[in-house]
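call fold(seq) -> tokens
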Amino acid sequence: MIIKYVSKKLILLFLLSNIFAQTINTMQMNLFANNNNLHFLHKNINGLYARDEIKNNIVFSHSIKPVDNKWVNMKILWKLDKDKIDLYEFSNFLDLKRGQLKIGSFNPEKLYNENILSSGSMVFSNNSRKIMGISVNSNWYNFFDIFNYKAELYHGKFPKQDGYTGGPYLHYKSVLLKKQFLDSILGFSVKHAVQYGGYDFNNEKIPTSWENYIDVFFSRSGDESQPQQDQVYRAGNGLGSFVLFFEKKSTQIYFEHYFDDKSGVKTMNFGDGLLGLNVNTDKINFNFEIVDTRNQSGNQHPPGVDSYYYHGVYEFGWSNKGLTLGNSFIHPNANRKFVYNIGIESIIDNFKLITRYAFSEVYIPYQDKNQNQPHKNYTDIISTDNYILLGINYENKNQNIISLHFSKENDLDNFQLSYLINF
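ret:
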């Protein structure tokens, strides 16, 4: 059955390669020693292993961009799992005179590209499958020779989640600023995302209208048609971040201050978020990060108990098919952690040696507001986790890559053997 599906796909790919002048195609075969789901092997790879489905598979990637054709700039990711085809990412970018129109599932605009050793942005990372939608972003523009800026507006729709009749809508917008200083770059961005509409936890449909969208856009309270908590506070499940970024030659420093409500916007939870350092040269790729989500503006609401990634109406929270949309270490059911994450890639000729380690302290999560009473024992560590990965990649002259990775997470371990082919 697999051969049948592969044959059909290869025939289609051959036809596309003759129609379109520029195509980049890869096929990666992944074999695992067991079904253990480990962070360093199975997270931050576009939701490939959602729902703890750790199975041997074949992943295909196609990038299609015709010469002198602004209408097609397509990316497709899909996998073969036994006799099943799973299309888990599709996007097409259309270049406009003053910006870009994006349709499908894709990453939003960012100040910097996340390093492969990173645990991921606090708002949108590569951890889960991306939300299908449509986005318009501007080009970079110069503001009176002071700084450059660009903006993005996105509208999407979550797929159906476990226990819910249908998924909510997604609103997202961002503004990015950059300033060049000789060989250095200083950047700042604001991100704001909201889940709204869809169905509540009783599977009752939440009305949506133009007026509701305006409330979501300007982060206002919902009207009487919205769930009770949205009438009291803000329409939908809103969250976002402020990002500071500095780059000089091969070194990057970034800090992402996360907020889940008004107290976070006022930085009453200052210190919560992602702090990182990356050094990337021809010989080494070094990444160090600290993820801290313990503060949450205090242990009593109001103003604290910010309940990161969690929401009373959408109990799956800031996730898609069980995987967090934001930082891979944080989850609605485990949203108070202190994590340090370190990784090194050493390049020696055609070999790449990979070493990764992370340590996590887990604290009681903040979800409901505890009837506005203080949470007790909020400083107690309820568990600790250790994550290890050792790997080696070999790339031949045709840029095909064979890799062997071993990972251990507390008492669990797993091996992954992969072979990536460019064709």
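The radius of gyration is 22 Å.
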